[in-house]
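Please, structure for the following, as tokens.
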Amino acid sequence: MDLNNTSSDPKTQIMNQIRQEAALNNARALINKLNGHCFDKCIPSPGTSLSRKEETCLSSCLEKYMGMWNTVSRVYIAQIQKTAGQAGGGGFDGLGV
């Protein structure tokens, strides 16, 4: 099964475009969630600059979220590939992770 197959089949092209758009939407959702959660957690009262403590908190928060996002994405993609393989379908390469 070739996950990077670039077919000229219109259906395949549309599916690839949908996968790419879904990946982009997922990335946007992650960024919005990170901004909201980490900002609320790390910056109790916004000012003109970040304190060292706030910078450290934001960095740690972002690293934690990104690590979890990558883990969940890998497991999700593996499960989809396994299901598609069992069903005799094609591969899945669309989350861009």
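Confidence is low (pLDDT under 50) at residues 1-5. Residues 52-86 form the longest helix (35 residues).
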